[in-house]
Hints:
- This protein has 154 residues and is an alpha/beta fold.
- The chain has a single domain (4-152), classed as Alpha-Beta Complex (Nucleoside Triphosphate Pyrophosphohydrolase).
- The chain is 17% helix and 41% strand.
- Strands 1, 2, 3, 4, 5, 6, 7, 8 and 9 form a nine-stranded mixed β-sheet that branches.
- A hairpin with a 2-residue loop joins β2 (16-24) and β3.
- The radius of gyration is 15 Å and the shape is globular.
- Residues 1-146 form the Nudix hydrolase domain.
- It holds the Pfam family NUDIX.
- This is DNA mismatch repair protein MutT.
- Keywords: Hydrolase.
Amino acid sequence: MNIRNSAKAIIIQDKQLLVIKKLDKDGYYFILPGGGQEHEETLHQTLKRECIEEINADVEIGNLLFIREYIGKNHEHFEFDSELHQVEYMFLCDIISSNKEIGNGVVPDDGQISVERLPISDIMNYRLYPQAIREKIIAYTLGKELPVYLGDVN
């Protein structure tokens, strides 16, 4: 079994988090923009490509905020994720001003419905994955120092 690297964007504007909206049997859920690293691609190159593909935005990549592992067999979606082991690198990003409309890009994520903005003050009420990131994003916006490595969380 291989370990997959993934780069994710944490984009906070006007006290809102930019996310991708999807739907499953339990209803709507949200994920951070980004995706899998390809061979010979740096994490920054991955993140820039994925943001253009998924949210139609060129991003300026800032600091690495969090690293999380996802070992599928250890979590609630084990029935279809049991073989997945992914390491996600979550970077603080800003959208670079352009004439482009922020929304679904040219290669949206599988099942992607739209690009949304969730109010950080209300983020605990949304099914945002990884769910453990919700309280970390709130703490970050309040200026609290947090560990970078989050472990195997969902």
